[in-house]
Amino acid sequence: MDNGAQQPHPFFARLARFVDHMSGDFLGGPRVLKFAWVINFQKGATALWVAFLMWYFRDTSVQAWVYLGLHGTYGIAWLMKDTVFPDPNWQKRITFGGALNALIFVLGPYWIFPFLLISGIADGASLPWLTLAIAVHTLGLAIMLVADAQKFYTLRYKRGLITDGMFRFMRHPNYLGEMMVYGSYALVVWHWLPWLILAAIWGLLFQTNMRMKEASMARYPEWDQYKARTGMVLPKIM
Q1: Residues 80, 147 contacting (CB under 8 angstroms)
Q2: 93 pairs with which residues across the strands?
Q3: How far is CA 209 from the centre of its chain?
């Protein structure tokens, strides 16, 4: 038995409605596209985009190859994840205007990262920092995939609050993994603009999604105790 969902902060509630409209209903018309198709297109085409930039700018630097390997592999891993355990949130139908908005304003800025690096605007990280980026990317991808798999298969057989496994110490490990993955790309590029883009996405979009999710999860009786002993994206130290 639950206690009823709590109301999220008005700012995040309004922002969630705005994002939902801009990415789902913008310009109106038939909802013929799945949101997942738009996301998969951008993720899957990233390796081709990076390879094109390397060809166009004649860049065969270590940093460019590392970036291609990391971001390109992530795109493939995402497509595998969507095939094996798809996220129900991405299965909703959206308009063509919503798809265009998602590509330009949410997913598109990620493609600025390799452009900065491969065009020569950014110098790229040195070898020690590249090593750190690879390590952070590997751990982040593992955290994201394991957390999403646990959530998918747990909720398939048992609805309710997930408080064990990857969710034992933090409430949103999948977001932590995603942040580590994209943070590693910003580290490889070694420029301030990717961090500014990530700050906007993490501070607005990710924060809104997590707040809305937590408002929904608060309907479970064990929520208060679970929230008290866990962090949002990092384990609580004390």
Answers
A1: no
A2: 34
A3: 11
